[in-house]
Amino acid sequence: MTSKNLISRFPYLRHDFAASLVVFLVALPLCVGVAVASGVPAELGLVTGIVGGLVTGLMRGSSLQVSGPAAGLTVLVFEAVKEFGLPALGVIVLATGLLQITMGLLKLGRYFRAISVSVVEGMLAGIGLVLIAGQLYPALAAKAPDSGLGKIAGLPGAFLDALGDGRAVASLAVCAGTIAVLLLWRHVPAKVRTLPGPLAAVGLATVAAFALDLPVATVAVRGLLGSVQPPPLSAFGELAGVGLLGTVVAFTLIASAESLFSAAAVDRLHSGPRTEYDKELLAQGAGNTVCGLLGALPMTAVIVRSAANVQAGARTKASRVLHGGWLLLFAALLPGVLAHIPVPALAGILVHSGAKLVPVRALAVLWREHRGEALILAVTAVSIVAVSMFEGVLIGLALAVVKTAWQASHVKLEVIDKGAGPVDAHLSGNATFLRLPKILDSLESLPQDRPVRLDLSGLHHLDHACRTALENWAERHAVGTEPVRLTVPVRAG
């Protein structure tokens, strides 16, 4: 096939080829960093990135979204590996993928958009806080405590211990330098910025550590084939345990929500085809199924890589497929390069990523405009830090449901009292058990020596508890032989 025919058949190949190189350079340090922070071999992060490109990238859904290991699942993966062991991780990821495929076939993908944005942002904020706290320990050449609260509470002592330790000071300097490069990279000349910030930061940290012979830990390398270990049959017995099943559900909900919310964000960045949510969920499920069979990390769509893909000029899914190919070539031909990367540099990358997950400015705006939503966000984040990922998300979802039910049960009582004769009371809105105390307090404050006409025809909804309580109140309030006149709405249920 001539170059002219190739261009006519793939008119956007030049754009997609260039974008794929940018995405590869952005993804490389993040794949390695997420794997190290998750407590698994660094190569497994590359495996998930490869699958995200070559498997999920080929499938339909969101054409420009890029998938791979995500910082948002780091905390959950670390906890799962610590509790169930590395062989069980493949089982968890495989079950997650199959569950996502099932949900995609049942066309449940679109319903993830109904999840409260405050819960999702609170989830990401909680992950960000635990991620930042957890990564400051490798930055200090120290061992991190197990719990989220323990990580945060132990930081002052860890910093004090580091002051007299040359190894810890060197490690912290590498981490701080990495974060400084990431923060200042947008101010460098445009030609220099063609190299992605994360890669530049890790590259400079690697060169500095080598040139200055700094006593810092580097990434342990096992080789791609040595790291890929499909889960043994014995590990599937863990699925009988409630704890592992709960972890699968947590992986599924968080990975699916993060991917589909990312897809919605990517759609706002380009004018091309819109995301088909059910097909995107199928694609994510297929990718996680393959990752599970290989014993690799779970994948989600990653907004950092996806945004880089769009901004680099990608036009079709070819860019993300090619990026998976570049990751595969790197893992196959240059795995030894990983052994020179300082662990505190990767910690700096993840501290920077974790900070982006904490919406400080958005929370301040939300507090001024929608305090209930701000409260849900904050409670979800604090619950994740204090308890765990799964329970924190459940608490946030429960709080969102209670808030919605409370708002939906808004009811108004209008009383017309002319000073003599019957008192007219009109209820409008939604009368549910949540508002029952308020309704009864208002009705019981009506004059006791005058007849009452209670009109309920303005109610959109009257639940059984309210209806029974109002009928009982009407019987008690009868004045002499004149009962309360009750007008019940036809739609009452």
UniProtKB/TrEMBL annotation:
<keyword id="KW-0812">Transmembrane</keyword>
<feature type="transmembrane region" description="Helical">
    <location>
        <begin position="325"/>
        <end position="355"/>
    </location>
</feature>
<keyword id="KW-1133">Transmembrane helix</keyword>
<keyword id="KW-0472">Membrane</keyword>
<dbReference type="InterPro" id="IPR011547">
    <property type="entry name" value="SLC26A/SulP_dom"/>
</dbReference>
<feature type="transmembrane region" description="Helical">
    <location>
        <begin position="168"/>
        <end position="185"/>
    </location>
</feature>
<feature type="transmembrane region" description="Helical">
    <location>
        <begin position="197"/>
        <end position="221"/>
    </location>
</feature>
<feature type="transmembrane region" description="Helical">
    <location>
        <begin position="375"/>
        <end position="402"/>
    </location>
</feature>
<feature type="domain" description="SLC26A/SulP transporter">
    <location>
        <begin position="13"/>
        <end position="380"/>
    </location>
</feature>
<feature type="transmembrane region" description="Helical">
    <location>
        <begin position="118"/>
        <end position="137"/>
    </location>
</feature>
<feature type="transmembrane region" description="Helical">
    <location>
        <begin position="84"/>
        <end position="106"/>
    </location>
</feature>
<protein>
    <submittedName>
        <fullName>Sulfate transporter</fullName>
    </submittedName>
</protein>
<dbReference type="InterPro" id="IPR001902">
    <property type="entry name" value="SLC26A/SulP_fam"/>
</dbReference>
<feature type="transmembrane region" description="Helical">
    <location>
        <begin position="241"/>
        <end position="266"/>
    </location>
</feature>
<dbReference type="Pfam" id="PF00916">
    <property type="entry name" value="Sulfate_transp"/>
</dbReference>
